[in-house]
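We modelled the chain as a single entity of 338 amino acids. Its sequence is:
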Amino acid sequence: MPTLTPYENYMRMMRGEMPEYVPAMMDGGGTMGMVWEYNKDWRPAMGTTTPGEIWYDMFGVPYVSEWNANNGSLPAPGQFILEDITKWRDVIKKPAILENIDWEYCASVDLPKLDPQYLVSAGPSIGNGYFQMLVAFMGFDNGLIACYEEPEEVKDLLTFLKDLNVEMAKEYIHYYKPGMYGMGDDIAHDRAPFVSLDIFLDIFEPMWRATVAPYKEAGCLASHHNCGKLDEFIPYIVDMGFDAWNPAEPSNDLVAIKEKFLGRLAICGGFANNGPVCYPETTEEEVRGFVKEALDLYSPGGSYAFGGFIMGPPNDPVTAVRQSWINDEFEKIRYSYY
């Protein structure tokens, strides 16, 4: 029988130590002090739950839900607020809500509600990641063209956003004293990054590095969220000080990454949640087999947390039952690896 709680076991992995059994990606707990809960005008860039509803983030970007992708949010197609990157200063302004955050009050309300057995997790930001905000403002086509044609303007825009994030980080660290930080920026698709390594290093890497820096300087553990295939960016993510990466999709060479950065970067995920697991002809036995296959492949040596999810409408009974197979199989076998 295990002697460590799931959280204690997860923290071993985050510190680069050998866990007692295979952690789940969510064992780190959800104890994030979310300042926007106490500022009604704050709308994060993700999280609407009403299909078909159009709502606006703090910059005025309209968002809609995609019900078939677990109700994830995305910028409303064809309604982008910035067409010409050289005009960004006329369009993108510091949101008024950022002038009115009573950090001391928010912490006084938030912190007593958090479970004391967990570290306080930090994740306040002015939207999604830097690449995601660029394409939210401009769309993928204009955003990517801007990176090629006007890189200095793109850097100026992202520096403006970065400075807001760093300003918030300092306040959050002071009042909340977090032990863990989570940052995300979905800069890749299933087959490759959306930008070249050169563009990443020139434009986006400095923004990521500067954003995580205050948390690392404060002694926080850090987790980086990035979907898709971005093998070539991983060494830089490790060098920035991130201790974990999720959802670490199998389109990446996770075995090689794990071997190279064992004890320095925890691989969280390792499950193809939009592949055959979603197919209607895939059997329960096969779905359960995918779980065992992932644990057999990625758990040896530690530095791994399983994250098995299935994409689909949240109210779809087929989605729900397949998720139950994944969860059940993981719980059955997670204690038999170490």
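As a brief sanity check on the tokenised model: Residues 151-176 form the longest helix (26 residues). The beta strands are 55-56, 62-66, 72-75, 121-122, 180-184, 221-225, 244-246, 266-269, 304-306.
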